[in-house]
Design a protein that fits this description.
1 helix, 3 strands, alpha+beta, 106 residues
Length: 106
C-alpha cells in the first residue's frame, strides 16, 4: 500500500513538472533573461562633438592609429598621434591630451 502511494506521488510529480514550467513570466512568453530587440527600449549612447582645443583625458586607453595614410589622415608631427574615438579620428597632443584636430571616419 505504501509503495503504491509513493509511486503514484512520483508519477504525479513527473506529470505536473512540465505544467509548472509552462507558466507565463511577467505577462509575456519569454523566460527571464531572454529578451529580444522589440521588447526592450533602445538606449543610445550620447555622442560627443569633439572640437579643437578640448581636452580628452581617456585617450591613452585607446590604441594609436599607425596607418594614418590608409584613412586619409595627414602625418602627425612629433609629439602628436591619431586616435579613433567613436566614429572620429582625433589628433592628440601626447604631452597634454589636447585635441589638435578632428577628422570624421569613413
Amino acid at each position: 500500500m505504501f509503495t503504491r502511494t509513493l509511486l503514484a506521488a512520483v508519477a504525479l510529480s513527473f506529470a505536473a513538472a512540465p505544467m509548472a514550467q509552462a507558466q507565463q513570466y511577467g505577462g509575456h512568453d519569454r523566460k527571464p533573461g531572454y529578451s529580444s530587440s522589440w521588447d526592450k527600449k533602445q538606449q543610445y549612447k550620447k555622442r560627443h562633438n569633439w572640437r579643437k582645443g578640448e581636452r580628452y583625458s581617456d585617450w591613452k586607453r585607446r590604441p594609436p592609429v599607425r596607418d594614418y595614410h590608409r584613412y586619409g589622415l595627414r602625418k602627425p608631427a612629433r609629439g602628436q598621434q591619431w586616435v579613433k574615438v567613436d566614429n572620429s579620428y582625433l589628433l592628440m597632443s601626447v604631452a597634454t591630451g589636447l585635441i589638435l584636430g578632428v577628422a570624421a571616419a569613413r
